[in-house]
Design brief:
Length: about 850
């Protein structure tokens, strides 16, 4: 083997006695191939010389009638690259070129019309990676077979590419296999039943010689056994008798005669030893052969139907011929040997040792297992076509997202893959909706991961992102949707003045696509005055890149925090950033999810804001159930003037608080009403409730509040429940209508600011074990042994009487979701440090 000249565009030259082959390419792949190896396999007649680019080895090629060579070389064939192939006859022979896929085969033809002594063509494997097999014949006789290995340029082939396929194999019962693809990937024996006919045919094609050798060896030296047969014959022909013969004669004494004192029988049951091949093992051999013929028949029918009805062309003649030849050979052996007289096989409870030890039977049984079991991607045994790398990456992204979610949340619906299992392929159905539904055990909220959602219609051009994460949030009917779009593209040369960063990352036009997805996919809400509403809250590119730490400083990663659009590196060994974002999106409250999206200018003026200084709801308590019943029935409430400061006026609403100590541990706030009249009166004028004689306060001024009617708070509260007490209750308190409609327990009514409310909501979402401490000036929250204190413009995180983290309240107000995540990260870090 010789080294090609430096600077030559020739990648591979093969010279044989009959023909010469040259493969050229002007594009050199930009990347490090020093630690990567590729394989080149040649089978042919009279191979004289092989020249391979990018190698310094010289290997002599002996001019044998037939030779097999395997070379380990640096990668020279890559995706998305044009390769010119030239095949020239040395002796005027008519040449032909064959590849298992017609789109490759049809690109190579005669250089001049009608002259098949010179073939040429340009091959481009696009995004397809793996092994590709070429066969070149001269005058109809195969002279040379070439197997090349096509490498991806955006991922590492021996690691990421194989790991992607492993992940898919793990999640799907059969690897996504397409019989009509340009390249194939090697497979090894798996451990699951396989019903895919294309898989069966490809395996049988490779092992058929071994299969027939095993069958022929069985035919030449078959397993047999001796059996004893009995026959009634004249006594003079009987040669051997046994106990069965004696018992037969005892039952038939009329056949015996006595002559001259001698007892004799006219006829006897004689025993004969006979050789038979009708054994359980041979019946199983016949069953294997019959099932092979049946599967080949079914394959031919379905492959022909697939080629005509789905692929829109004629079936590959060589494939049909190979299938017919194999079927013919198997039937010939079955009908011209002892097997035609063997009985039908019935499943045995255990397998004979013959299939584990006897020559021929052992090999045939191994072939049978290979044919009847599923395949895992690996090894160098079987030729299988796989998806092109871009589509493989798209499939892997969905399946990996599914796998990440499945580990953290309860799977409800496993419908993640739709397959066409009655034809020639088993694939994820691109362009058709597939989804998986999960439940968050902490919140009870539903999580839906959708592949190829088909309903994303817009008022202009319909959009179809690859993956959409749909989240349900408590307290709202809004579905929060996020696009995770797989793009097998990367900007490896960020030096362009049009690229906004100096580090590798997603393509700019892909980022623009994310903007389009988020802004153009809308929902028609006929009940809303705005009519059309955006349904996508964020859009992210998943792209093949492995340096997550470096990418954290990339502009398109930071943009996720600011505008909720950007890119995330996603490969088998690089999933941390995606996992983190998924965790954040799912753990976000509905408020944080809303804050992640960008809003149009002026929207704040249109959104209703809560005035946290305005406490217009009086929370009224009772001294007895009778007092409550009277106020409820008469639609009024009364309170001493001394307990209501002037800045609390006017009172707009009254909520009735039934405390545990007065209502037998059945306390709650269930009813509230709108105040229509507030009058300052003497206590003595409130005659519906008699004055307690011990108090004698008839002249004390009271506010008598008349309400329009009492409403059930379960109709307006976000939770649909009453507000429960956590203590004996307050005397008189004030809150606002927002808190009254969004609180679960009474202490929540004391929250004093939007920042306190948002922090409490995030903390409550993260854990149900949260307490509120209110000391009238500052409010705090307790979670386990950690205390969160709002004090002097800061949020203090206190554990073991030490401040472990601080966050300015005004910073939290700007980005509550991200600020809270920083606090939780600090808590986790402290916990890990304490454990070490």
């Amino acid at each position: 083997m010789a080294l090609l000249p430096t600077g030559s565009d020739k990648l591979l030259e093969i010279s044989t006695e009959k023909l010469n082959v040259v493969i050229k390419s002007r594009r050199n792949w930009q990347g490090d191939t020093s630690n990567r190896s590729s394989s080149l396999v040649l089978d042919g007649r009279n191979i004289k010389e092989v020249k391979i680019a990018a190698t310094e080895e010289d290997i002599e090629c002996e001019n044998f009638d037939y030779a097999h060579y395997e070379f380990e070389i640096p990668p020279i064939f890559f995706e998305q690259t044009d390769y010119e192939i030239i095949i020239k006859s040395n002796d005027g022979s008519q040449l032909s070129f064959w590849n298992e896929n017609s789109s490759v085969k049809d690109r190579v033809g005669s250089a001049y019309d009608g002259d098949y002594t010179l073939l040429s063509g340009v091959l481009n494997f696009e995004n397809t990676c793996g092994y590709s097999y070429f066969e070149i014949s001269a005058d109809g006789v195969r002279c040379l077979s070439i197997r090349i290995e096509v490498f991806p340029s955006k991922i590492t082939y021996k690691e990421d590419y194989q790991k992607m396929i492993d992940d898919i194999s793990e999640m799907v019962s059969e690897v996504a296999i397409d019989f009509m693809q340009k390249t194939y990937q090697t497979f090894k024996l798996g451990d699951k039943q396989s019903t895919v006919l294309s898989v069966y045919f490809q395996i049988l094609s490779v092992i058929f010689n071994d299969y027939m050798n095993a069958v022929n060896r069985i035919i030449s030296v078959p397993h047999h056994k001796l059996i004893t047969e009995h026959e009634v014959v004249p006594y003079y022909k009987a040669k051997r008798t046994d106990k069965t013969s004696i018992n037969w004669l005892r039952k038939r004494q009329d056949r015996m005669v006595i002559s001259d004192g001698v007892v004799a029988a006219e006829r006897l049951l004689t025993a004969k030893k006979q050789l038979t091949y009708d054994t359980e093992e041979n019946r199983f051999v016949k069953y294997i052969l019959r099932s092979t013929v049946k599967r080949l028949d079914e394959f031919i029918k379905r492959y022909t139907r697939y080629a005509k009805n789905v692929a829109g062309g004629e079936p590959e003649e060589k494939v049909i011929q190979d299938a017919q030849r194999m079927k013919r050979d198997v039937k010939r052996v079955m009908h011209s040997s002892f097997l035609q007289d063997v009985s039908e096989y019935h499943a045995a409870k255990s397998m004979s040792l013959v299939f584990g030890m006897a020559p021929g039977y052992r090999e045939l049984y191994k072939c049978y297992l290979m044919l009847s079991r599923s395949l895992s991607v690996n090894g160098d045994i079987f030729k299988m076509s796989v998806k092109d790398t871009a589509l493989l990456y798209e499939y892997w992204c969905f399946i990996k997202l599914f796998s990440i979610l499945k580990k953290e949340y309860k799977l409800v619906s496993p419908d993640i893959v739709k397959v066409d299992n009655n034809g020639i392929t088993v694939t994820l159905v691109k362009g058709h909706r597939s989804e998986a539904r999960f439940i968050n055990p902490n919140t009870g909220e539903h999580i839906t991961l959708v592949y190829n959602p088909s309903e994303q219609k817009t008022q202009t051009v319909n959009q179809r992102p690859d993956n959409v994460l749909e989240l349900e949030k408590r307290g709202t009917d809004v579905a929060y949707k996020y696009v995770f779009d797989a793009k097998y593209r990367i900007e490896k040369d960020p030096s362009s003045p049009f690229y906004p960063d100096d580090k590798p990352g997603p393509k700019v036009d892909d980022i623009n696509t994310m903007h389009r997805y988020r802004d153009s996919i809308v929902y028609e809400n006929r009940e809303s005055k705005f009519m059309f509403e955006k349904t996508m809250f964020g859009a992210y590119i998943l792209f093949p890149y492995d340096d997550e730490e470096q990418y954290k400083n990339h502009r398109f990663y930071k943009s996720i925090e600011t505008v909720n659009i950007g890119g995330l590196p996603f490969l088998p060994g690089s999933t941390k950033l995606v996992r983190s974002l998924l965790d954040d999106l799912i753990s976000d409250s509905k408020e944080s999810a809303f804050e992640r999206t960008t809003l149009p200018a002026g929207i704040e003026e249109k959104l209703a804001k809560v005035d946290w200084d305005k406490r217009e709801v009086l929370i009224g308590t009772f001294r007895s159930p009778e007092q409550f019943e009277t106020c409820y029935q008469r639609r009024f409430y009364y309170v001493p003037k001394s307990m209501v400061s002037d800045d609390r006026l006017p009172i707009h609403y009254v909520a009735l608080y039934q405390t545990n100590n007065k209502f037998g541990d059945k306390g709650e706030i269930r009813y509230y009403g709108e105040a229509i009249r507030v009058a300052l009166v003497k206590r003595s004028s409130i005659t519906e409730v008699p004055i307690n004689p011990s108090r004698n306060n008839g002249d004390e001024p009271y506010y008598r509040i008349t309400v329009r009617g009492w409403k059930d708070i379960t109709d307006t509260n976000e939770s649909g429940e009453t507000i429960k007490p956590l203590e004996q209750g307050m005397a008189i308190g004030f809150t606002n209508m927002f808190l009254l409609q969004h609180s679960d327990v009474v202490p929540e009514l004391n929250i004093k600011s939007e920042e306190e409310y948002r922090f409490y909501r995030e903390l409550k979402r993260a854990s149900k074990d949260v307490d509120i401490a209110d000391d009238k000036t500052d409010i705090g929250f307790k979670h386990g042994d950690t205390y969160f204190d709002f004090h002097d413009g800061e949020i203090l995180v206190i554990k073991d009487n030490k401040i472990i983290h601080k966050c300015a309240i005004n910073e939290f107000a700007k980005r509550p979701g991200s600020s809270f995540r920083m606090i939780t990260y600090a808590m986790k870090s402290k916990m890990i440090t304490d454990q070490q």
